[in-house]
Amino acid sequence: MTERSVQDRSIAELVQDLSDQVRRLVRDEMRLATDELRRKGKRAGRGAGLAGFAGVMALYGGLTLVATAVIALGLVLPLWLSALVIGVVLLLIGGAAGMAGRHSIKTATPPLPREAAEGVVKDVKAVRGHE
């Protein structure tokens, strides 16, 4: 079947063709977007897995360093006392980090965009001519 030239076709036929082409274009773009998101999701999943593995390895490395510190301090103190000293130091560091985190969370709450809301109020007043 040979297609008629654009000049020989009615407006209804041209609009129908345009509608079909737009529909096909949107469907193809959605398929491309889905494929791209799938590829990126796989890559992100692989990256998250590697990051988790790195975190576990860092934890093991940190624990090994803590054991090394206990053993090293055990050369000058009884081993139980060196373990106690290292444990207390780690608890103090953890407590300080927890307090700093708590303070940071308190200053970030409530999670409302106050500056943006104030800006909107100012913009509305300016548009109305009140400012």
Automatic annotation (TrEMBL):
It holds the Pfam family Phage_holin_3_6. Keywords: Membrane, Transmembrane, Transmembrane helix. The chain crosses the membrane at residues 48-73, 79-100. This is Phage holin family protein.
